[in-house]
Amino acid sequence: QVQLVESGGGLVQPGGSLRLSCAASGIDFSLYVLDWYRRAPGNERELVAQIDNDGSLNYADSVKGRFTISRDNAKNTVYLQMNSLKPEDTAFYYCHALKITTGTDYWGQGTQVTVSS
C-alpha cells in the first residue's frame, strides 16, 4: 500500500519559516517527479514547487526566492523549505508523486500552513 505522509505544517508569524516533509512508503521515490501543491479557501489548487528525477526545479512565481524544494531518495522524502512566509501563503499543502512513464500518481493527505500574526 502506497502512502505519502506530510508533516511540518502549523501556525507561523509573517516573515517566519516552516519546513514541510513528505515521506513515502510503498514506492521508490527516485522514479517519480515530486511536487508540492497548495489550496487556499476559495481558490483553485496550485502548483507550488516541483523537482524532477534529475533534480530539475520549477517554482510558482509567487514563491520564487522564498521556497526551496529538495528530495532525499534514500529516505523516500521530499521537503519544502518555506522562508519569508506571507499571509497569502496560508493554505493546505499537499505533496504529489508522479511516475511519468506510467502516469501513476499519488497524493498525500495534506498539512495546514497558517501565516498570521
Q: How would you characterize the overall build of this protein?
A:
- The protein has 117 residues and is mainly beta.
- It has strands spanning 3-7, 10-12, 18-25, 33-39, 46-51, 57-59, 67-72, 77-82, 91-99, 104-107, 111-115.
- The chain contains no helices and 11 strands.
- Strands 2, 4, 5, 6, 9, 10 and 11 form a 7-stranded mixed beta sheet that branches. Strands 1-3-8-7 form a 4-stranded antiparallel beta sheet, with no helix packed on it.
- The mean pLDDT is 96.
User: Runs with pLDDT <50, length 5+?
Assistant: none
Query: Roughly how much helix do the residues carry, as a percent range?
Result: under 10%
Describe the main β-sheet briefly. Answer: 7 strands, mixed
Class from secondary-structure proportions: mainly beta
Quote the average pLDDT: 96
What is the tally of helical segments?
0
Q: In what range is the share of β-strand residues?
A: over 45%
For the terminal residues, how far apart are their CA atoms?
Answer: 40 Å
Radius of gyration: 14 Å
Choose one word for the global shape: globular
**How would you spell out the order of helices and strands?**
EEEEEEEEEEE
Strands, count: 11
Keywords:
117 residues, mainly beta, seven-stranded mixed sheet, four-stranded antiparallel sheet, 11 strands, 0% helix, globular
What are the SSEs and their pairings?
Elements lengths: L2 E5 L2 E3 L5 E8 L7 E7 L6 E6 L5 E3 L7 E6 L4 E6 L8 E9 L4 E4 L3 E5 L2
Parallel strand pairs: 2-11
Antiparallel strand pairs: 1-3, 3-8, 4-5, 4-9, 5-6, 7-8, 9-10, 9-11
